[in-house]
Amino acid sequence: MTEFQSQLKKYAEVAVKVGINLQKGQNLVIMATISAAPYVREVVKAAYEAGAKDVFVRWDDDQITRIRYDMAPMEAFEEAPLWLARGFEEMAASGHAFLSVLSPNPELLKGVDPKKIATSQKVNGEAMRPFSNYIKAGKVSWSIVAVPNEAWAAKVFPDLDPEAGIAALWDQIFRINRITTPDPIKSWEEHIKTLHDRCDFLNEKRLKKLHYRAPGTDLTIELADRHIWLGGAKKNTSGVPYTPNLPTEEVFCAPKKTGVNGTVKSTKPLNYGGQLIEGMSFVFENGKIVDFKADKGYDILKNLVDMDEGARYLGEVALVPHRSPISDTGLLFYNTLFDENASCHLAIGSAYAMNIEGGTELDDKGLEEAGLNTSITHVDFMIGSEQLDIDGETENGETIAIFRNGNWAI
Are 199 and 230 contacting, i.e. CB atoms less than 8 angstroms apart? Predict the structure, then answer.
């Protein structure tokens, strides 16, 4: 076995044992593109070795996706495959675990009619909403990992030939995910404990609001009543720990829907739906986006914030230190899974029900009444840098330095 094959196997084991923490006798559903097939096969092996009852794989293909957007009529994007949405809902209700294997092309849909993309995202978001509620409420175990492809590697390493670019991207993914350590599982356990310690500190402080200051940013965010900071591994409603993102460096919470005011400027491009949005800025009043700009991809951003009523509000506030394994690479990954874990970020759209006490037992109406935002979308955008300062204000008016110069001050 070559060193690469050994690391690939370890990466699969981390996805199964740390990511979804597959239980004996449990079914696993994998969503992946066909370019990730060699890695997916290793995940399937690791799942059965861990005692999986069965493993189901749903394949996608980037080339077919592009062909469909170029050639299918508009009517094709106005309907969602309800059989697929109902199938995912049924599998979630039956306790399956879910693993997404990303192998993104950051500009897959460059030049595609934005109306087709927006329509497809909206109708599919509505159709998948019941399944998404299982995810956001932590009722099932789920995780996301990533695998290189030629297009992605070329974007991250434009000066390397395709083979060298893919090899370089694999090296980064293995290192960032602690696969190159002597014991990746143990390394993840130690890292998760560090994130949990951060959450414990923030939960003990019962912060009322956060104040962000950086070039182009002066933003206050009130936190939801009964909020809970989470990070690293979480427990689903059956009490089984799982780690949603591999990698992960964040601790996150739910903002009060109507409690966001001021301006904020993005610090990294956003890969949204196979297209790039760059140089974003937003103005918030009483939680709502009342103005926004983008240096590139304005129409794409407009389609996002017009997705539904909830897409004009925030659903997540996440803290990530500037000094972290991903940020320290100095690379822009053009993929939210990595870029959001190199930078403090916010999310447009739906909040996670698990971020408030008793939230997993509430429906959308109940979550709105509790002060959380609901939406068919949830899109993270990055705002962190070495110039970001964040202060927290407690319920008794005490001010606490949370971040200074982009890093933890606590």
Answer: yes
- Burial class from Cβ neighbours inside 10 Å (0-12, 13-18, 19+) for residue 86 reads middle
Q: What percent of the chain has pLDDT over 90?
A: 93
Question: Measured between alpha carbons, how far is 98 from 103 in angstroms, rounded to an integer?
Answer: 16
Structure tokens at 68: 């469909």
Distance CA 141, CA 29 (A): 11
pLDDT above 90 for 129: yes
User: What residue ranges define each of the domains in the chain, with the CATH number in brackets?
Assistant: 3-176 (3.40.1830.10), 191-234+242-408 (no CATH)
Q: How many whole angstroms separate alpha carbon 317 and alpha carbon 291?
A: 19
Q: Which two tokens stand for residue 141?
A: 């175990």
* pLDDT per position as a tens digit, 106-122: 989 999 998 999 999 99
When the pLDDT of each residue in the chain is averaged and rounded to a whole number, the result is 95
Distance CA 227, CA 207 (A): 9
pLDDT above 90 (res 273): no
pTM of the model: 0.92
CB 39 within 8 A of CB 8: yes
Distance CA(25)–CA(153), nearest Å, equals 37
Mean pLDDT (whole number) for 241-267: 97
Burial class (CB in 10 A: 0-12, 13-18, 19+), 87: middle
